[in-house]
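fold-stage: in
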Amino acid sequence: SRLHIRELFQNSSTPALHIIRDSADVTFGGVAPEPSTVNMRQVVKFLQERKEPLKLGAIIDPDGDRIRFTDGTKEIGMNQFGAMAYHFLHEYKKKKGLVAKTVATSNLANSLAAAFGEELYEPPVGFKNFKPVIDKALVYFEESDGISITGHTPEKDAYIGLLLALEMMLTTSMNLGDYLAAIEKEYGAFYPERDGVEVSVRGEEMLARLAGLDKYRAGSTVQVGNVARRIQQVITIDGRKMIFDDGSWLMIRPSGTEPKVRFYVESRDQAGTKDLVATARNMLVETGLL
């Protein structure tokens, strides 16, 4: 991405454009080269020192396919930004069409699609799984910071995300955090989180232990913090996603790339996220994987 970012801005020398960590370094300075909250700290610090009313910071990974944002106050991951992009194209650009996001991604996009009367496509984790709707979905994205849009490349592309973010700001005259707050005020707030645990068993034995989660079916109750939540819906296209009666959910699935079990949660209030994480961990303890 360091090879193209200046060209994207026509090699502008404006002081409004500041590029960090764009030198050639195969070790990446010993820092994992990925969009993350830890790596965002330097960007946040820089933006907080700027006086402009509209500010945008972004982290792009080395091969230019993943991106995460901040306005110096609020970090915007793809869980939120993908839904924002859908709202922007649908409501500001007056484009009509479905939205696609992986099953492990925030349900904010689900809320938007329902309000717009549009379809939702929700495949297993993996950008390749958007193939059936590449020419139909306005936006397709996954929580691991990948996005693309209709009429663009079928692969995830950080640059289209960056251009969308800039156009959002110029069109709405809002920073991304303010735009997200406006969307949440109208369609509801969602607070996602994810984690993973290394496991010593793999293959069939891991799957056999995860099958112990089958007892958590629609209609059964799960203790989440101090509240007994009823499971409203179970989705099993990729692991097991349990959606509760308040719209919160948790999902457990085996990693496709590492000897890990991953879990994803989403609360409808900020305080509830940690309770869902604890519940997911307790379920893994029950299976004997943790």
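fold-stage: in (second)
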Amino acid sequence: MKKRLFPVAVAVLALGLTGCAGAGSQSGQSSEAAGVKVAASFYPMAYLAEEIGGDAVTVTDLTPPGGDAHELEISPKQVAELGNQDLVLYLGSGFQPAVEEAVAMQEVPTLDAMDAVKEDQLREGDAHIWLNPMIMAEIGDLTAERLSETDPNHAETFAHNAKEFRTKMEALDSKYREELAGCAGATLVTSHEAFGYLADAYSLEQIGITGINPEAEPSPKRLREVEKIAKEHDATTIFFESTAAQTTADRLAEAVGVKTAQLNPIEGTPEQDFVTVMETNLSALSGGLNCK
């Protein structure tokens, strides 16, 4: 059974990460018996750690269900307990500043998922790399290597799991390429610029209503700009993220005369697993984009 633990309440948080690991064991076994201890900064990293580590790891997701990954705060106790982890898997580039600051305070093995992104793939100010399946596959390979350094006895298992994970991501990538084959150059109008890496992978042009900050209310000038671009590119749908209010998307959709649809940026823990949510996003894209 894959083990993931969440700091879900103040009382639990006060115990620190080590306390969480002990609470998550079936019979109070020691942390050593629980396998390699991995702290993951938010859901996509936790999902990936579980896929690669399997039963050989215990994963602590630092962002609890329903929590805002962008706004995550880490207590001094948690910062100290990060030093007891065998690996911290996180996403740099300012996506979760509190995690980066905490990691810098501890001498603990780390993996910044941004290391998997090739220079020509990087997008300035955007860290949503997990929405590109092939980048996820690269992160999986790096995770297997780092786990193998920590636990050489399970190196073959980690390598095997990474290979299977890559196959899963390749299949997902193939689905996207097949269903979006006629959409190259189509305009993806979103309420939050979280889908740039996905758009780049499948030759789409992303236009964000608010920019990369989902909490920012777009100005009337910005709405007019996006309205003009959407009309010029014959956009048929305004996509809004499932975690954001639909009001802005509805306003623009009404102004342009198009429909709305949801895209999940998968920043928080979803009700379904990663691949299923990605497939749901694909259905929304293929049904909403202006494709040939």
